[in-house]
Amino acid sequence: MARPDIPIPDEPKAPFPILISHTKVIAGFGRGSSSIGIPTANVPIEDIPDKIGDDLETGVYFGYVKIIDDSEAQDSHVSLRNDGKTEVEFTYAKDLTDGEDKNVILPMVMSIGWNPFFKNEKKTCELHIIHNFNNINFYGANLKFNK
Question: What are the phi and psi torsion angles at 59 (to 5°)?
Fold first, then answer.
């Protein structure tokens, strides 16, 4: 089977490029890392503007992300994941290394959809940042991303 010949446009077509200038990493179910070995930064789907959400099909998208350290404004705390059983620490990126992990622009892939493998009923937005964070979490940190 041959891959279809899809021309690359000279410039982005509406609604692209999409810039999300402020959203926080939230705790999901913890399945990305533990079940399939692909850690994701979950962000509230509500932070994707409605106009864009109406035009944006579910799928996997490529883009760039910047993690913004919010640890000076927020105190670390422990909260439950969406499963209501597992605890996760919100560090707001305090453990990321200046210049190496935080405040730099990194490539990412973003999934928008219902995750049928896990039988989700709510649409989600998950970013897999293409970088080795050495198991350091950044729950609660601010993100800026575009795709």
Answer: 160, -170
> For residues 101 and 37, what is the distance between their CA atoms, to the nearest angstrom?
20
Count the Cβ atoms, other than its own, within 10 Å of residue 117.
Answer: 9
Q: Which residues contact 46 (CB under 8 A, 6 or more apart)?
A: none
The answer to whether 112 and 61 are in contact (CB under 8 A) is: yes
- Enter the pTM of the model: 0.78
What pLDDT, in 10s, does the model give residues 44-54?
887 776 545 55
pLDDT by residue (tens digit) across 97-114?
877 777 788 999 988 888
Residue 89 is a catalytic residue: no
Catalytic residue among 11, 87, 121, 126: 126
The token pair at 126 is 């998950």
Which residue bears the tokens 């994707």? Answer: 48
Kindly write down the DSSP assignment for every residue of 88-146, as one continuous string: EEE-TTTTSPBTTTBSSEEEEEEEEE--GGGT-SS-EEEEEESS--TT---TT-EEEEE
Tell me the two tokens of residue 47.
Answer: 């932070």
